[in-house]
Amino acid sequence: MNVNSVSNVTEEILSAILKCIDEAIHVVNTDGITIFYNEVAAKHDGLEIKEVVGKPLLSVFPSLNEQSSTLLKVIDTKKPIYNETQSFVNLHGRKIETINTTLPIIVQGELIGAVEIAKDYTRIKQLSERLVEVQKSLTHRSGKAVKQQAAYTFVDLLTSNQHFSLIKKKAEKLAKSDSPILVYGESGTGKELFVQSIHNASKRATGPFIAQNCAAIPENLLESILFGTSRGSYTGAVDRPGLFELANGGTLFLDELNSMPFDLQAKLLRVLEDGAVRRVGSTNVISVNVRVISAMNVYPGEAMDQNQLRTDLFYRLNVLTFELIPLRQRKEDILFLSGLFISQYNEKLGKQVTGLDDDVKEIFLSHQWPGNVRELKHTIEYMMNVCEGRLLTEYDLPVMMKNIKPSIESKRSSFVLREHLKEVEVQLINDALKAADGNVQKAAMLLDIPRQTLQYKIKKLNL
């Protein structure tokens, strides 16, 4: 095989690889002529590949120019651009929103072109902006702020667990404060319901309640959604208030805070410190009166160790902190909530189920419930739909729940009290240390034992 044949095969292999990649890829030469454009890019831009390849970039995307095109900027500066927002109109008049990473292509020290990897978030941006507009219209209807979304109160937080009851009482008392609140707990423990209850028990109950999941929106878009945009801040940008402005006089709930990028966390910290926001692309500062409540599904210490949460932001948010303990640590609530959910679905489905049989009770109490209350509710919902009798039985269990029964029976092989007491003691101490973020003094207070006793047990049990 000669050199030209090898070169042709290599180009074919490279082209095939680029076509298989599930990202939009656009390559231009130093004259701004497109030399490669894959099918994903064509789908994003609403074009055919043949409409783009071999043509000048600006003739295909007439709304761009040498300053606003990330590809042409890289050709001009020979410097890479990472995660930059670009808004443009294609040849057919369709508006496209992308986040681009654009890199210079340098061979043997010479620039031969630029490659762009783009993520299309047009639809996400449209939906997010529509949400902001809806919230804006609700907030300012008839010139008054109206309550949004916060449907739950502490009355809806039902429990028979003493520890959780104390958390509720503490939250009701501290709801009157305007200090930031941090709520953490596993997925499914009811963090948003808890936060809505705090809002409705606060002095801001008549103000707006706006919730935003930080993991659901791309980084560049999240900033504009939170802080708003100023006309001209980027191509296609318009004057639009962010969620902080829309939540003025009320509560802004930021869920999965640990998913927020570090630089955006720094801007959030600034807003908490100053009580003012600055829209993206603007130099004007807008004062806001907003209570921020944040939530995470991991322990704050763990989030900081994994560089998911800024230390300075944590200490600013850590004024008032609540941990919602998992369902497996409040066993009495498993059967208590099961009864409540059965009653709810009896009413919805027109049934007269009276409860769980003994085998199902045993399975429920032995299950770890990784999805917590949400998992329990969905399990009951499934069983209520398929059951035919007056009691929910093993036959009605979801497949995954049926598979755990053998492990339950195997636990019955040991009846040695000392072993089981040790297991319970280790579990309680570990839970207390976690709740106290490793502080032995606080953990000892939770366990209601002297600090010296706890230190002795930690050493003895190798914890």
From TrEMBL:
CDD domains membership: AAA (cd00009), PAS (cd00130)
Pfam families with a match to the protein in the record: AAA_lid_14, HTH_8, PAS_4, Sigma54_activat
Coiled-coil spans in chain: none
Single Gene Ontology MF annotation: ATP binding
Residues annotated as domain PAS: 10-58
SMART domains: AAA (SM00382)
Keywords of the record: ATP-binding, DNA-binding, Nucleotide-binding, Transcription, Transcription regulation
InterPro entries per UniProt: AAA+_ATPase, AAA_lid_NorR, Homeodomain-like_sf, HTH_Fis, P-loop_NTPase, PAS, PAS-like_dom_sf, PAS_4
Protein's name according to its UniProt entry: PAS domain S-box protein
Species for this entry: Mesobacillus subterraneus
